[in-house]
């Protein structure tokens, strides 16, 4: 049966993107529309134009695992370290390295069971550091939503809200079938590094603002080899970490995505 829809994250009224399970019908209130994307891209390119130096190739991200738990959800250190390894493996070609800054455990049943409704309170209490500190929150996101993230451009106006939130059962070995290999984390960190979904904008316009990701009309689910939803060149990028395919199907970022992440880091987080 189709999992019931759950409310998506308010994300403090800032643009955010998420990942949902196949068959779910979740409306993301802060999914950036065309006008928001246009404004974000203008700001991005304006900031890039003012940089004196070209983006550096190597980026180091300090990861703060924020384990929020109630009667469940107290994820062991070993699982968190596996998640860190998965991030490092996925982003190796992007010249992005993730180092462990801390593992912080917070027992709060309300935050654990409703991290969306309590997002501002939770993050305001827990987040420390600066724009280069990735706060990786784990909690129970319900039956449909796997995770959400803020974009780099949001940090200036809402620094306390910066970070990613993922379903605690999406980490390696979790109970979410097809979504329990840690790639919800990979996907959400991609947003935190400045990437849109591969299906952003559908078949029209600039799509995800990356030239080497073929256009895609809608999210993929499962692992539909050969799926091609747009008339432009290239089959749908179902193996891309920024689609909605099963974890086992998601294996890559493109060179263009790697370049965009480096540029977004230079513009907003360096």
UniProtKB/TrEMBL annotation:
Pfam families: Peptidase_M43 (PF05572). InterPro entries: MetalloPept_cat_dom_sf, Peptidase_M43. Transmembrane segments: none annotated. The keyword Hydrolase applies. It comes from the Bacteria. Residues 1-23, 205-229 are annotated as: Disordered. GO terms for molecular function: metal ion binding; metallopeptidase activity. One of its GO terms (biological process) is proteolysis. Keywords: Disulfide bond, Hydrolase, Metal-binding, Metalloprotease, Protease, Signal, Zinc. Residues 147-263 form the Peptidase M43 pregnancy-associated plasma-A domain. Belongs to the peptidase M43B family. This is Zinc metalloprotease. It comes from Actinomadura soli.
């Amino acid at each position: 049966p189709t999992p019931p829809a759950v409310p998506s994250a308010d994300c403090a009224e800032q643009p955010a993107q998420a990942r949902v399970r196949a068959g779910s019908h979740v409306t993301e209130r802060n999914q950036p529309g065309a006008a928001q994307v246009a404004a974000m891209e203008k700001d991005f390119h304006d900031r890039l134009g003012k940089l004196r130096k070209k983006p550096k190739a190597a980026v180091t991200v300090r990861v703060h695992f924020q384990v929020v738990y109630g009667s469940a959800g107290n994820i062991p250190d070993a699982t968190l370290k596996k998640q860190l390894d998965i991030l490092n493996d996925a982003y190796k070609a992007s010249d992005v390295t993730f180092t462990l800054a801390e593992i912080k455990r917070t027992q709060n049943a309300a935050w654990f069971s409703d991290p969306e409704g309590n997002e501002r309170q939770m993050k305001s209490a827990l987040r420390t550091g600066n724009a280069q500190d990735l706060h990786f929150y784990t909690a129970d996101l319900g039956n449909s939503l796997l995770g959400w993230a803020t974009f780099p451009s949001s940090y200036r106006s809402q620094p306390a809200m910066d970070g990613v939130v993922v379903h605690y059962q999406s980490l390696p070995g979790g109970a979410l079938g097809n979504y329990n290999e840690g790639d919800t984390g990979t996907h959400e960190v991609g947003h935190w590094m400045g990437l849109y979904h591969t299906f952003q904008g559908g078949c029209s316009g600039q799509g995800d603002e990356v030239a080497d990701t073929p256009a895609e009309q809608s999210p993929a689910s499962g692992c539909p080899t050969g799926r091609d939803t747009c008339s432009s060149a290239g089959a749908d990028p179902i193996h891309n970490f920024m689609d909605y395919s099963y974890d086992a199907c998601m294996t890559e970022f493109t060179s263009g995505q790697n370049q965009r992440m480096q540029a977004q880091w230079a513009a907003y987080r360096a």
